[in-house]
Amino acid sequence: MWETTSGDESTVQWGATQALGGTASGSVVTGNGNSRIHEVQLTGLLPAMRYWYTVQTGSATSGPFDFVTPPARTDEASFTFVAVSDMQRDWSNPTVWGNINTLGIIPYTQANYSGDLPSDLAFMMIPGDLVDNGTNYSEWETAFFDPAQPLFRHVPHYPVAGNHELDSPNYFKYHHLPDNGTAGYEEHWWYKDYSNVRLIGLESNGGYRIQAQLDWLQSVLDSACADPMIDFVFAQLHHPHHSELWPDGNLDYTGQCIALLEQFSTQCDKPSVHFFGHTHGYSRGESRDHKHLMVNVAVAGGNIDYWGEFGNQTDYPEYSVSEDDYGFVMMDVTAGDEPEVFLSRLSRGDATTTLNNVLKDTMRIRFNDLRPAQPTCLFPAQGDQWPPECIIFKASPYQSGNNALHGATHWQIATDAAFNNLVFDEWKQHQNWYYEVDLQAGDDLTDEMVQVLAANTTYHWRVRYRNRSLTWSDWSDAVQFQTTQSVLTANLLVNGDAENGTTGWTATSGVIESLTANECGATVPFAGSRFFCVGGACNDNAYGEAFQQISLSTYVSEVDAGTVSVNFGAMMRNWSGNDDRPEMRVKALNQSGSLLGTSPTIGTLSGSWIAVSGNWAVPVGTRTLSVELMGTRNVGADNDSYVDDAYTRLNLSAQGCAEMPVSIVEAIDHPALLYPNPSSGRFNVMDRDGLTSITITDLSGREVMTINGNGQENVPMNLSIGTGLYLLRADDILGNSTTHRLVINERN
Fold it and tell me: Which pLDDT tens digit goes with each residue over 158-181?
């Protein structure tokens, strides 16, 4: 396709060499005024072949340029494509889209692949907002096509419409997409198979969020499931389901599409990815229970949605990376016996700082992948009894048979052995880049603090590990344990459940309301007949705050001995996950009422009732605790910050969290050597060929311990050698000797 200012001739000279030799003619439609858009279809081309072409309208010619045809599906050919979105021109930074192409995609591809652009880059996917105003004819030339001509002359692009296209006829004049969508909606949604991948284009704009599209998507996924040539599905649509940088752009309909893709990936055992835009920044996330990847491939020209620009920016658990920058995503697809997808995000910086294709994120998904080893529940152990206030759960070290790194851990605690009645269901990923900070830094994903358990209750817990290719291990064998009587005082708050109206609470900003079920369009109580709305559903305020003071006169000696901590929390929620935020904190005041310190603030963005809690050491000299409830409206007219069953209790003994009170033995360079690991000082040294002796020395070579293995495969050892770094040498019956480093840490 090409465009001219006038003239109806549509001729392409083409051939397998620059000598061309072939001629084809096509059709023309009116663009705008006297302009003409020409389309010529070439037939009889061979797969994976380079062809040259020129286009001609009267005396006007363009070319010669070259392109490479797609491979035959039976060739199992690997390939690379690029995904970008939202290149609508920001008039404060009008050169971004051009630079993405000429300084980003083209030189990066030439430098990191063979150097032959048409064969290195199969196509470009664009999930919407190609221009700022789709009805403005001139923008298509000046803002979209002109900056991309150096790439588009050689590489095809496959877009879907964004909201800025405004459902304009111009979008459809400039593109001829596969017309295999629902009858009457051709080119609004479509699919195309390329090598071992099915590409799917969807439309998420108003007027097209209909069941007919979902039904079509299901049928296309069903056929992809049955097609043995397809290993992966890549879908694209414009709007996000969840967006961390600009949640106002969230769309429930996208969530319905994602649910179908997730179901496909799990039932058909074929990974899927969906690309989107609308929010002007990069994000990558993963479905928890499905091998599905979600990637915001913006922004390639529009005004960046910067961190802090919007008050309701949200940290969603499924997203592990979000960046407010310009950039593009390269997707390397491997076909054959071991299919895989490798994602690379290249950053071009932002409006104030230019980066030259800096690698910011990578992700690999394998079609054939080994499960991580099934983890073991280490603490609490079977039959253990511990106080309920705070327990640090501990699982065995992560192990993977194909050296895949630890990607996530899923913890569950329930009151029944079938795990139908969950009281704790937490999913932690290995990274969480949010607001330019990795909130998961330092977490090895093998332990988890839990503060929501009840006293004198029997619980069951289990854990599973995920690698970074989105493959989960089996769940661990479940462990049963009990909680004992609480070591905390009774709840010192008056009317923490709102059953007595707002008695005991004083509003310092906005209002605090005690509501019954569905009053003023709010929610239902967690328990009882009432709950708090901090900020107001009946008398709404953007921010609400209320406090209650608790005298510590009864506990002066314990407080001044420095042995008191405060355990505080509540059940909290908002309206269906609408991003309003209920919060709670505690302030310590001295005898004269001066502030000695403030606890961390706890809160949630959950759309359903969830237990939120915190612990804080009470400063010496504290005579009063001021307990504060806060509610922040981030969206809508009402401040839907709901609180129920609030509590504040004291731990007078300063007892810390219950955790594994044992020596931890870790083999640094061979974690499969020891079992159990961690250990209580007694562990087994394993070797499939049997062991004749085991020697432990310190780093100076001094022998600390020697054990006779007698040719056994598992040799039990009891360690009582103190904290430090040691060397362990194991000799097997075949005469092989291996040395491993050990770290032994004493933990209370």
Answer: 999 999 999 999 999 999 999 999
